[in-house]
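CORE FACILITY INTAKE
Project code: CF-77B
Contact: R.S. (postdoc)
Sample description: multi-component assembly, two entities in total
Requested service: structural model of the whole complex
Turnaround: standard
Below are the sequence entries exactly as provided by the requester. Do not edit them.
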Amino acid sequence: MKKAGTSLAVIATLIAMGAVVGCGSGGTNNAAGTAGNAANTTAPSTGSQTGVLNVGLQADPSTLDPALSSALVDRQVMANIYDTLFALTPDGKIVPDLVKTYEVSSDGKTYTFHLQTGVKFQDGTTFDAAAVKFNLQRDMAKTSARASELNMIQSVDTPDSNTVVLHLKAPYSPLLGVLTDRAGMMVSPAAVKKYGDDYANHPVGTGPYIFESRVKGDHITVKANPNYWKGAPKIQQVTFKAFSDPNVELTNLENGAIQLSDQVPAQSLSSLQQNANFVVSNTPGLGYQGVYLNTSEAPFNNQYLREAVDAAIDRQTITNVVFKGEASPAWGPFSPKSPVYDAKQDTPPAPNGDEVKKFLKEAGDPNGFTFTLQTANSPVTAEVAQIMQSMLAKYNITMKIQQLEFGTLLSNNTNHAFQASALGWSGRIDPDQNTYQFWHTDGPQNGSNFSDPTVDKLLDEARQVGDMSKRKAIYSQFMDEMHKQDPYIFIYFQNNTYAYSKNLQGFQAYPDGVFRIADMSI
Amino acid sequence: MAYIVKRLLTMIPVLLFLSMMVFSLIHLIPGDPAQIILGQDATPSAVAALRAQMGLNQPLFMQYVQWMGKLLHGNFGTSLIDHEAVMKLIGQRLPVTVELAIGTLIVALLIAFPLGILAAVYRGKWADFVALFTSTIGLAVPPFWIGIIFLLLFTVKVHLFQSSGYVPIWQNPGQNLSTMILPMVATGIREAAVLLRMLRSSLMEVVDQDFVRTARAKGLRGFVVIVGHALPNALIPVVTTAGIQIAGLLGGLVITEQIFSLPGFGQLLVQSVFSRDYTTVQGAAMVAALIVVVVNLIVDLVYGFVDPRIRLTGGRS
């Protein structure tokens, strides 16, 4: 009986092991066969010969309608479907694109655009002055996300089918910069009329790639536009795939599922740079990150306390520890790629303990104070907050950290429902777009509720002057004022960090961080 | 039959209550879709205008009544963000998660049954130890970690599977399985651990009962006694657990879906919450609730098959 029991045990164990192994690897053998076949059959098609590119994106684009877009990741797809009136060069210059030539009146209030001729939308309709007017008016509508960028336009005239005249309310030098972005993306009026509210699911532009299909939350596929007015692109099909976890996106790059990735986790940067199969592009972007201080509420209605926080933060340590080369220390809203960047003024000084103590004393809080920082619930923002917390603790400044989901953080910021709010800006090429709306009295993004007549005057002046070197001098005065008043603690400039397979040719980094796939081949 | 009808009728107040909860909770979260669509630099008046356009400026109660009115006609409304029918969005995502959940459960059963039976039969011996050790590991190691390790091992080091590129099973079964097997195993291990423990303890109870001793006394072989006599009597708690598991999996696979880049139902729900896509959140949450209620009903019906002593048709006790 005992013997029978033992042999039964052995048999049963074998069956059990078989079953377990069956699930672990034996069972996967079958599947591995099919998977192996699938991998073998799909590998060449995702690979080099057929001109198919798979791109990893850090989020699923929320919309493909430029009038409604509010995320950078949307532009990664849209920039390939739409052309813009003006374009950005890799070194940050603004050049005409769908506009062939243009003139600006001497008072800076009238812009005349002469359009490219013979350009067609992907649905076959003609791109002309009427289409430009349609687009600008659509973008100027109140419920468009572009409205605030174009609110200086008084009226749009179309004297003939190739000429568009913009009449402005006042001189507005950021206009051309704005038109390199989504406000300059030209959508097909016929498609908008045809699809109405559903247009975003059927985008039509004049660009190098035609929208083909989309599975929400998963991928978007576009194919080459054979009739593209600048010549058909080399890569025949592009699939954009969303990955919500950066490490998963990296894994997909490493195993060849994607050939171009729009992010590299900081801790993997150096190992990827040493991997001969991939190329890493790591260049400064146009955005900045930092902390809004609510100037209309205690404790930060006290200017000295704002200055104390500014003097206590060691930005270099933060960028070294958290970003490992994917960001640089910031002390202003103008990144190294901005036309008005001033290394002296936008690079933070080393933290100064004596100054912190002096400011605390002047504020009337020599023994420190307490405040709460609201920040997004991502690992990176949490790490930055924790480092700041320890830097401030040295001076008895107690910073409590409150992690919030992004929508809530944004809503609290808009409603000034915070003491300190860690929220940055992805950045624009024109310096006005990185400043005016944040620190001008009643600016739409003035979360700090900051209001200062000198700052208002300088910001108004800077957007009216055409010459960039003159504007730079004005922004320099503006920065002096900002460093005195500190409504916002600038912390770092985030780089645009991308990685791609060594088989991908023609990749160029643009300051706006958007891929131009028409330049590339595989 | 009368039982089923009765159960279906009791679903109505449950779902009605849930619809109120879902509706009020999502509207309680700060932030609103108009703000999110228009982005950081929107003016308050533009946000207000878009809210009006979306019908969000009406009293909440009115919005609820309108939504319920449509729901009762089988219309889940249109996504505030995507402008697509919520039903279509759910229809795209639900099959992914259903397949994943079923596969996970199959993996879990394949692991749990042999090990659970062994553990119960050889209680306190090494087979039991192996089973308990396996289940402790399964419970202790989170599926997302197993998932990432699987990705590194089986898609980067050895190119056995695909790490992304899901296609529906009816389009390309090979590629579908190539993207689905790893997540099924990664989550299946944990579910197996739960089932294994349940089966082991339930079997142990049964094995001590008189009828099992009788079966043994009749001279039946040990294996036959366990599988033929003890197991059916030990299945009730296991079926209950598996039912709870499958209901939980349908909404709780978000992280697995993220790691393996599967466009599943969980991701839809989470993304919709982040973008404050009220109609989609409401629709998806109602579907999830419906699934849980229906799965519970099915589990109750399965009891009758597993153990004929439980008769659900009449009022007999």
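Facility notes:
- The domain at 90-306 of chain B is CATH 1.10.3720.10 (MetI-like fold).
- Chain B is about 75% helix and 0% strand.
Invoice: internal transfer
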